């Protein structure tokens, strides 16, 4: 299955999902995406910027993780809510700059979004 | 050299949104130095809205000058997205001195400016002038508060007032929480010293959180956002930012979804 088809499958598996995208936060490049025709390149670029911001926050939680007794390092996923949508960002455990995100237009099922994003990212990583 | 927009471009009629913002951007960039003429509506609310949006985009101290025909001119001192002083060129300004307290002050500014603009037939907004001296915050209030006092519909999508119930709910269930104002000062907190310290360290480590590079930060975007991050031991970090102010809380996992729904209901 190609990355595009994996993203299509992820998008259709989550109710209300408008964008599924796979990118690299360090280069701020969206590598593949699945979305409606009304999503522009600028929207995807903004998602990359959002991912970089998000991962900056994840990396900043090291002290919190230590305090909570988690030796596994910073977390690898986050939900970002804005006044327009909710987005789940999941980054690869091995290559932390690669990420997958799912965007829902309104209040999304974050658990389902997170699970679908993680599964899809793992499938893409396994295929590489 | 000061120039005005050609007369055939009627900003107020054509588009009070995009075109007007573009013209104001030109004025702010000073390439070249344009004055932007606007025709007031009956209550002068469109001028007030334009002025407040300009104040809301002003961080460093600036003097905003509006040439008003035939009423005269009004000079507005703005800094840190706040309106700090108004000065009218004639004796049409309010006879009373500014009252203390942000709410009263916002009402005072809204009333004085609305009455003044309602008497104008055309207003030209000149490019902002730099003000070298520090601006006193004794008589300042946010552009948002003045907009609320004037019952204007601007800033509706980023109104910090609507976050109050979210903060209250988050604080009620949080193991620890910390608030930071736009100047990155820790203003309020609760929880154990260790938890509060860790939350503060997290905030300080955000890209661009040090004052020297804060102007470059990808985080200082102003728009409201809420980050929900699952941590170990059934804890979640909730980090909400609105107009460069931050709220960070450590909450039980069971409360995170409820709080996210609460946050989005505030934004609806």
Write the layout of secondary structure elements.
The complex is a heterodimer of chains A (128) and B (268).
Chain A: H1 3-13, E1 17-24, E2 29-35, H2 41-59, H3 62-67, E3 77-81, E4 86-91, E5 98-104, H4 110-127
Antiparallel strand pairs in A: 1-2, 1-5, 3-4, 4-5
Chain B: E1 3-4, H1 11-14, H2 18-29, E2 34-38, H3 45-56, E3 62-69, E4 72-79, E5 82-88, H4 102-118, E6 122-125, E7 129-130, E8 141-142, H5 143-149, H6 164-173, E9 176-180, E10 186-190, H7 193-204, E11 225-230, E12 235-242, E13 245-252, H8 253-267
Parallel strand pairs in B: 1-2
Antiparallel strand pairs in B: 2-6, 3-4, 3-6, 3-7, 4-5, 5-8, 9-10, 9-13, 11-12, 12-13
Helix pairs in contact in B: 3-5, 4-5, 6-8
Counted up, domains of chain A total 1
Strand and helix order of chain A: HEEHHEEEH
Oligomer: heterodimer
> In one word, what is the shape of chain B?
elongated
Q: First CA to last CA of chain A: what distance?
A: 11 Å
* Approximate helicity band of chain A: 40-55%
Query: What is the chain-wise order of helices and strands of chain B?
Result: EHHEHEEEHEEEHHEEHEEEH
Distinctive features:
heterodimer, A: 128 residues, alpha+beta, Beta-Lactamase, 5-stranded antiparallel beta sheet, 4 helices, B: 268 residues, 8-stranded mixed beta sheet, 8 helices, elongated, disordered N terminus
Give a short synopsis of this structure.
Chain A has 128 residues and is of the alpha+beta class.
Description:
The complex is a heterodimer of chains A (128) and B (268). Chain A has 128 residues and is an alpha+beta fold. Chain A has a single domain, classed as 2-Layer Sandwich (Beta-Lactamase), CATH 3.30.450. Helix content of chain A is 42%, strand content 26%. Chain A is built from four helices and five strands; from the N terminus they run αββααβββα. Chain A has helices at 3-13, 41-59, 62-67, 110-127, and strands spanning 17-24, 29-35, 77-81, 86-91, 98-104. In chain A, strands 2-1-5-4-3 form a five-stranded antiparallel beta sheet, with helices on both faces. In chain A, strand 3 (77-81) and strand 4 form a beta hairpin. In chain A, helix 1 runs antiparallel to helix 4. Chain A is globular. Chain A starts with a helix and ends with a helix. With 268 residues, chain B is α+β, with helices and mostly antiparallel strands. Chain B contains eight helices and 13 strands. Chain B has helices spanning 11-14, 18-29, 45-56, 102-118, 143-149, 164-173, 193-204, 253-267; strands at 3-4, 34-38, 62-69, 72-79, 82-88, 122-125, 129-130, 141-142, 176-180, 186-190, 225-230, 235-242, 245-252. In chain B, helix 4 (102-118) packs across helix 5 and helix 6 packs antiparallel against helix 8 (253-267). The longest helix of chain B is centred in the middle third of the chain and has 17 residues, at 102-118. In chain B, 39% of the residues are buried. The model of chain B is unreliable at 1-15 and 211-218 (pLDDT under 50). Classes of the chains: A alpha+beta (128), B alpha+beta (268).
């Amino acid at each position: 299955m190609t990355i595009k088809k994996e993203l299509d499958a992820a998008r259709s598996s989550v109710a209300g999902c408008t964008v599924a995208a796979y990118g690299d936060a360090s280069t701020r490049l969206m590598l593949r995406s699945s979305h409606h025709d009304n999503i522009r390149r600028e929207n995807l670029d903004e998602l990359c910027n959002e991912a970089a911001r998000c991962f900056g926050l994840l990396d900043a939680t090291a002290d919190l993780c230590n305090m909570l007794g988690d030796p596994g390092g910073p977390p690898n996923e986050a939900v970002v809510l804005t006044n327009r949508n909710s987005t789940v960002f999941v980054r690869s455990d091995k290559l932390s700059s690669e990420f997958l995100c799912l965007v829902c237009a309104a209040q999304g099922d974050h658990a389902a979004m997170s699970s679908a994003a993680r599964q899809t990212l793992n499938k893409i990583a396994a295929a590489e | 050299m000061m120039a005005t927009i050609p007369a055939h471009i009627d900003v107020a009629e054509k588009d009070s949104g995009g075109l007007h913002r573009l013209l104001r951007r030109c004025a702010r960039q000073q390439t070249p130095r344009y004055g932007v003429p606007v025709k007031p509506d009956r209550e002068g609310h469109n001028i007030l809205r334009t002025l407040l949006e300009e104040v809301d985009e002003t961080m460093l101290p600036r003097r905003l000058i509006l040439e008003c025909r035939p009423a005269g001119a009004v000079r507005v001192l703005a800094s840190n997205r706040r309106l700090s002083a108004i000065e009218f060129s004639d004796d049409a300004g309010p006879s009373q001195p500014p009252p203390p307290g942000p709410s009263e002050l916002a009402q005072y500014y809204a009333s004085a400016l609305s009455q003044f603009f309602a008497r104008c037939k055309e207003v030209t907004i000149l490019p902002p002038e730099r003000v070298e001296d520090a601006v006193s915050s004794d008589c300042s209030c946010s552009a948002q508060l003045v907009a609320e006092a004037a019952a204007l519909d601007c800033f509706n999508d980023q109104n910090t007032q609507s976050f109050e119930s979210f903060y209250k709910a988050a604080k009620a269930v949080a193991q620890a929480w910390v608030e930071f104002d736009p100047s990155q000062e820790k203003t309020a907190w609760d929880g154990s010293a260790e938890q509060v310290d860790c939350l503060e360290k997290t905030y300080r480590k955000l890209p661009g959180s040090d004052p020297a590079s804060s102007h470059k930060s990808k985080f200082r975007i102003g728009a409201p956002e809420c980050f929900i991050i699952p941590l170990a031991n059934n804890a979640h970090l909730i980090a909400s930012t609105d107009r460069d102010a931050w709220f960070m809380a450590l909450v039980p996992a069971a409360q995170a979804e409820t709080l996210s729904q609460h946050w989005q209901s505030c934004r609806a």
